[in-house]
Amino acid sequence: MLSSFGGLVGDYPEQVMVAQVPYGSCPMCEIPKGAPMRHSTCRALDNPRDQHVYSELLDETNINVLHTLHVHPIRNQFWQFPLCNVYHLWQPDEWHQLLLGLVKDLLHWLLKYLKGRNVKDQFDNQFTSVEQYPGLQRFSKPFDSMKSSSWQGNEIRGMIRTLSVNCAPILDCCKDDGKTAAETASDEMVIGAVQALSGFSLLVSQQNHYDLSLTALDNALKRFNKKKGTFRDQKMSKSAKAKVDEQLTTESHQLREQKIHKIGAAMEVQVYGAAKVTTSKRRKFQVRLNRVRQAATKWSEADQQRAIERLEREIHQMTPVKCKLFDKLFQHHERQLLQEVGTKATGPRSIFAKELVQIKTAAEEEVYGAVNMTADKSVEFQVRLSDAETEATTWSLADIDRIVSQLEREMYGITSNEQMRFKQELSIHLIEFEAWWQAIGIQELRKTIEQRVIHFGYPKMHLLSHISESIR
Ligand SMILES: [Zn+2]
């Protein structure tokens, strides 16, 4: 049985099939699917897959746990061989994952980058004029003059050997040739990424390994992971950029509110003392405040429902006819999805729930039109709804301030002098926060979102980290 599989060594789809794990997950370890798989550290903390554990979970019909660990809840035929570890049946291999996988990708990213920098001709020239030397391969045509699939592993191995040397004179950072600081910085990152992956590839192909070479291998991978982000700009399509902008609008609003709230809470502890503003006291305070507020408002549930309907019509262009159409469409898709997943988990964190959200969004966009359902519009909806609620109360801004202050003094046992000091300290911190937010915070958030939206092929990037481990 084993020998018949021996010939298939390599490709990811087959690994996934034999390991019986969902496409997109790691056949060797239990790292969560998706974004974490392009993590920049060398792996070691992700649990290796264990057939004994899975077998027990299946016996106890712990289907949910198996789903969470990204294992299909069916008995794997390989589990019955005690000396065979199906999750290590195939060692990650240099040929498919590295040469025909990432190195090829790197060449594509690099060419796009060089094109953007107007130096691709120079590179093609270097690429096709490698000196004759034993062990060095020569290419008569530029890399992108042929279909990517026509380059084979051996040729790619030849390319990676000379890639750093071919790039260095073009992206040389010491040369003063009128580059801007940003160009110099990105050139430096690009050549760093090229050198790191070249180093990694050369080290992997060595016959023998020892501690020193394995450490060098890990370091090369770490360097590559650190520098590869520089190609993100090259990979960013118009639609991806729009997606980043949209997520930034929603998330920056939420994150800002959260951070401001945290600063306020920290200042309270600092000025009033932790004993006076405990979590339970804060909760009681909120309950009391809501009760007082409700007593002062003319805003009933029916009012809220009316306001929601009005705003849905105005902002999202939802008419009663369209709403009915949406209900029908969504219910139809929901039934279909339920039939597909059958007895699988349907809890709030299940794949089913995630897919349902996607289906809902798609149905909304289909019925109401995508332009009416953007993140901007949902923020506008929330803001206008809360404005409408505020308008309906009989309190003025001064009233709110007075009532909140009084309630605070009563419930936290603090003086009005302390409250004054709190306000002063808070306003200083908020000014500092605002400056930080504009200069750093929002850029950091954009970077995080970009990393999430524009990725580098999760499983491929992750499997690379198993290569060094498999040599050990
Ligand atoms: Zn893994």
Q: Could you walk me through the main structural features you see in this protein, from its secondary elements to its overall organization?
A:
This protein has 472 residues and is mainly α. Among the domains are: 2-88, no CATH class; 94-236 and 464-471, no CATH class; 239-276 and 419-453, no CATH class. 67% of the residues lie in helices and 0% in strands. The chain has 19 helices and no strands. It has helices at residues 2-6, 12-19, 51-59, 63-68, 94-116, 120-127, 153-171, 181-204, 211-227, 232-235, 238-272, 279-295, 301-316, 320-341, 351-368, 375-391, 397-412, 416-453, 458-471. Helix 5 runs parallel beside helix 7, helix 5 packs antiparallel against helix 8 and helix 8 (181-204) packs antiparallel against helix 9. The protein starts with a helix and ends with a helix. The model is unreliable at 1-8 (pLDDT under 50). Bound molecules: zinc ion. Zinc ion (ZN) is lined by residues 26, 28-29, 31, 46, 462, 466.
- The percentage of residues in β strands lies in under 5%
Give the oligomeric state of the chains in this entry, treating copies of one chain as homo and distinct chains as hetero: single chain
Show unreliable segments.
Answer: 1-8
User: What Rg is obtained from the alpha carbons, in whole angstroms?
Assistant: 29 Å
Number of strands: 0
Q: What does the largest sheet look like? A: none
The ligands found in this model are: zinc ion
Please work out how many helical segments DSSP would assign: 19
Shape: globular
